[in-house]
């Protein structure tokens, strides 16, 4: 298995680890708790122990790719800033894995990795210009320019979630107010739902039945309630999609992509969140680029692992 790579997608709660072939097929997939509070070094140690088991079972990769949430220094393989992995800043993941595994290692922003995975395996590298938007706990993004991942001058291009959509709006996990993530990330969506439920005590019967304990509210529950006709759930998605549309319209006008691809757990809301985005795009008077772009949701939930692995293989081959 000399031509395969390992792809690791590190989330705040769990990390996914995959052995991936050069054409993007997952040959093996595992999951382990991130236990972010323990710190970066213990996480690396636990991951290395898992990979040692894989090696004994015949999986011998030629490279490793790691996707991390936050401001990643791709050149040096370090994490500069992250709201969701406290204490992990400054740790040099690339050197740690190179020393332990004797393999070339690539460290990438998790959204970049996921977008590259979708671009390579679902879009088949056909469109030349693509914006990818990851919708999960937070909101991230990745840019494909002329068929290549665009990292920008400091490696932080595509941080769509921290573009402001309100001057004095809701507080984002980054510390600023009015970021797109504060409205379209999981925590922003749940906040909107709770506010509506409090403001309309006689409405939302389906949602209240599905989630008697409002502390357990989630985008998944809101989709299920919207599917069953719940007015509050549908209003939550309308508001979320509208704000998302405002933010993304600015990016599309500047970047003029062929495709806008949505990834992550929140994207499984499908048309509940995409239809308001389409409406914002359709109503915008400066509409040439907004009418050109195709909107679609990625299908593979493991795109982050796949993208990280493929980026590692391509870095190794000098592509």
Structure description:
By secondary structure, this protein is α/β, with parallel strands linked by helices. The chain has eleven helices and twelve strands. The chain folds into two domains: 5-117 and 302-317, ATPase, nucleotide binding domain (Nucleotidyltransferase, domain 5, 2-Layer Sandwich), CATH 3.30.420; 126-297, ATPase, nucleotide binding domain (Nucleotidyltransferase, domain 5, 2-Layer Sandwich), CATH 3.30.420. Helices cover 40% and strands 20% of the residues. The strands form three sheets. It has a five-stranded mixed sheet, with helices on both faces. The radius of gyration is 20 Å and the shape is globular.
CATH H-level name of the largest domain... which superfamily?
ATPase, nucleotide binding domain
Structural class designation = alpha/beta
CATH class of the largest domain: Alpha Beta
Q: How are the strands of the largest sheet arranged?
A: 3-2-1-4-7
* Unreliably modeled segments: none
Q: How far apart lie the N and C ends?
A: 21 Å
């Amino acid at each position: 298995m000399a031509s395969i790579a390992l792809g690791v997608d590190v989330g705040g709660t769990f990390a996914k680890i995959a052995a991936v072939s050069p054409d993007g097929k997952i040959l093996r997939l595992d999951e382990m708790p991130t236990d972010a509070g323990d710190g970066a070094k213990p996480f690396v140690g636990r991951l290395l122990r898992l990979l040692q088991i894989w090696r004994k079972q015949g999986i011998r990769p030629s490279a490793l790719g790691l996707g991390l949430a936050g401001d990643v220094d791709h050149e040096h393989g370090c994490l500069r800033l992250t709201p969701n992995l406290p204490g992990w800043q400054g740790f040099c993941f690339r050197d740690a894995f190179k020393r332990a595994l004797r393999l070339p290692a690539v460290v990438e922003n998790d959204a970049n990795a996921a977008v590259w995975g979708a671009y390579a395996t679902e879009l088949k590298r056909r469109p030349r210009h693509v914006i990818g938007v990851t919708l999960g706990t937070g909101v991230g993004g990745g840019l494909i320019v002329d068929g290549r991942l665009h990292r920008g001058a400091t490696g932080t291009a595509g941080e769509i979630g921290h573009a402001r959509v309100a001057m004095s709006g809701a507080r984002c996990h980054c510390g600023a107010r009015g970021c797109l993530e504060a409205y379209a990330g999981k925590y922003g969506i749940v906040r909107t739902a709770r506010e509506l439920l409090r403001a309309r005590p006689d409405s939302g019967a389906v949602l209240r039945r599905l989630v008697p304990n409002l502390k357990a509210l989630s985008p998944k529950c809101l989709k299920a309630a919207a599917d069953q006709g719940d007015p509050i759930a549908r209003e939550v998605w309308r508001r979320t999609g509208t704000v998302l549309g405002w933010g993304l319209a600015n990016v599309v006008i500047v970047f003029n992509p062929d495709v806008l691809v949505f990834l992550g757990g929140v994207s499984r809301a499908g048309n509940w969140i995409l239809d308001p985005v389409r409406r914002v795009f359709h109503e915008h008077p400066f509409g040439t680029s907004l009418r050109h772009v195709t909107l679609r949701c990625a299908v593979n939930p493991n795109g982050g692992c796949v993208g990280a692995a493929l980026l590692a293989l391509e870095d190794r081959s000098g592509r």
